[in-house]
Amino acid sequence: MLVTSNFNVHGIDVRPHTQCAHWHSSRDIIAIRHKCCGEYYACISCHEALAGHKNQVWPKDEWGPSNIVLCGKCLCEMSVVQYLGCDNHCPSCKAEFNPGCRNHYHLYFEDKMVSRSARYGKSAESILGSVSRSSFFEFCQLQSNNIVSSQL
């Protein structure tokens, strides 16, 4: 476990910038507070190995102002909305985050549409231009409902 002045980041072989035994490149510098326990873990594999309980994803209605993502370089905390919209850079220190993390969004965050769009390298802004973030999430919800309806 990495212990800083304000945060505990759990994981296997956690390093000073929150890298762990599973993810340890210079860009693997975020930790995510898990919905199920309220604790920061370096990655989902560390949570699975150490937490002793099943992971829960963050529901969309809790993405707002809550601090859920931690930059391992400057210890800036971000909401899910801030993190998903930051274009793989810390909004505070500009450190680069691993763009491959978008492939794991669905393990942490409820909204599958954001995960799918992010998987193809598109941020909310690049998908819908300058529309408001709330409009984007309303769009995602409509798309999710359309996908479910078409599968019935």
From TrEMBL:
Keywords: Metal-binding, Zinc, Zinc-finger. InterPro entries: Mito_Tim_assembly_helper (IPR052604), Znf_CHY (IPR008913), Znf_CHY_sf (IPR037274). GO terms for cellular component: mitochondrial intermembrane space. One of its GO terms (biological process) is protein import into mitochondrial intermembrane space. The keyword Zinc applies. Transmembrane segments: none annotated. This is CHY-type domain-containing protein. It comes from Gymnopus androsaceus JB14.
